[in-house]
UniProtKB/TrEMBL annotation:
It comes from Streptomyces lanatus. Residues 108-217 form the Septum formation-related domain. The chain crosses the membrane at residues 38-63, 75-94. Keywords: Membrane, Transmembrane, Transmembrane helix. It holds the Pfam family DUF4190. This is DUF4190 domain-containing protein. InterPro entries: DUF4190 (IPR025241), Septum_form (IPR026004).
Length: 379
């Protein structure tokens, strides 16, 4: 942006020349003669060596204006022009040798977080200097997961290229992807504390222009300054085969249960019956998967007892799917939920060396007629 030159000193009425009081450095009534603004701009740009061509042009224009208007700043204009000329030579050399490309790549890396604390990978833990996981983040420090930390990354998702889709669309993508991926990293959902929820870093409009396309999903405390201790990771890289098979089956059933329609059965019996049918099908598939697995000696009997309860629940969900009215539906609905997180599940988990403290749930849905539903804090 060009900088307009300041107006020269006004002359008193009838004055014969530009310096009526005989001193070339002062205007009327002893007021100092103003310094040419373009001279200042030329010197600044010359020192910074950021846009040397502009600094050189401004310096030459400033010299002409100073001569015509009697302003000060000739030394700054000359220095700015010389420094800008040197900078222009260096930029030309950089462009012909490829050094400018290296500089720009480094600049983009710094802006997008590459090579900095923002270049987080799955399994990394970090601290926020402010202890706040919401709003804009300008700096974070990677720390060992074994000690206290503010967040633990469980997934990194790359968005497709193209124009920036807008804050709302990026946030929607982050919600959809991060919440869907959390159980793949923390398969033992009972081991995730109740005061921990899902957060994410998303690209801003500015970082998108520099190539930033990553959504970083992480666990963090729901209260400011709440710290995590130890890793929440429980996946095939940290679990045994028996544990992995058990949790895969349990999480598949939980996912089906979480998809309960928002409308009560009284308002939309057909939708609730269709969902009950889906739960029955998922239960059947997971029962077969658990029966087909060779369990260790300690887990064999507890898991077999749990499978029997799952069979009873599957029959109840089948009856709910065929219910004639809402009352009959809810009777079988409640019976189908009886085994969930019950004593038999706890015994099986204990035999497998998994967490045995059942999570608590908040009912935040507008629908759902029987059991508690999952809750969470929007980010």
């Amino acid at each position: 942006m060009s900088i307009p030159p300041p107006a020269g000193p006004q002359q008193p009425y009838g004055a014969p020349g530009p310096y009526p009081y005989g001193h070339p450095g002062y205007g009327p009534y002893g007021r100092p003669v103003s310094i040419n603004g373009l001279a200042i701009a030329s010197l600044v740009l010359g020192i910074l060596c950021f846009v040397p061509a502009v600094g050189l042009v401004l310096g030459l224009i400033a010299l002409a204006q100073i001569k015509r208007k009697g302003e000060r700043g000739k030394g700054m204009a000359v220095a700015g022009s010389i420094l800008s000329t040197v900078g222009l030579v260096l930029w030309t050399l950089a462009l012909t040798t490829g050094s400018a490309a290296d500089f720009w790549d480094g600049f983009k890396g710094a802006a997008t977080g590459e090579g900095t604390a923002f270049a987080l990978d799955k399994g990394n833990c970090f601290d926020s200097p402010t202890g706040n996981l919401e709003g804009e983040a300008y700096d974070i420090d990677e720390v060992p997961c074994s000690g206290p930390h503010d967040g633990e990354v469980f997934a990194v998702v790359t968005l497709p290229g193209g124009a920036y889709p807008g804050d709302e669309e990026v946030t929607r993508n982050a919600d959809d992807k991060c919440y869907a991926l959390q159980d793949g990293y923390a398969m033992d959902t009972w081991a995730v504390p109740d005061d921990v929820d899902v957060y994410y870093f998303i690209p801003s409009r500015q970082s998108w222009r520099l190539g930033d396309r990553e959504i970083t999903c992480f666990f963090g405390g729901t209260e400011r300054d709440t710290e995590l201790t130890g890793s929440l990771r429980s996946d095939p890289t940290t679990l045994g085969l028996d544990q992995t098979v058990f949790l895969s089956a349990s999480n598949a059933v939980d996912t089906a249960l979480y998809e309960e329609p928002e409308e009560y059965a009284e308002d939309d019996l057909a939708a609730n019956k269709a969902w009950a049918k889906d739960v029955q099908v998922v239960l059947g598939a997971q029962i077969e998967a658990m029966r087909g697995h060779g369990w260790g000696p300690e887990a064999k009997q507890p898991v077999a007892e749990l499978i029997e309860e799952m069979e009873d629940a599957r029959a109840e969900w089948a009856r709910a799917a065929g219910a004639k009215d809402a009352d009959a539906y809810y009777e079988h609905y409640d019976n189908g939920y009886d085994y969930v997180d019950g004593p038999t599940t706890v015994t099986a988990r204990e035999a497998l060396g998994l967490d045995t403290t059942a999570p608590t749930y908040e009912d935040e849905s507008e629908g759902g007629g029987g059991s508690d539903d999952t809750g969470g804090i929007d980010v």
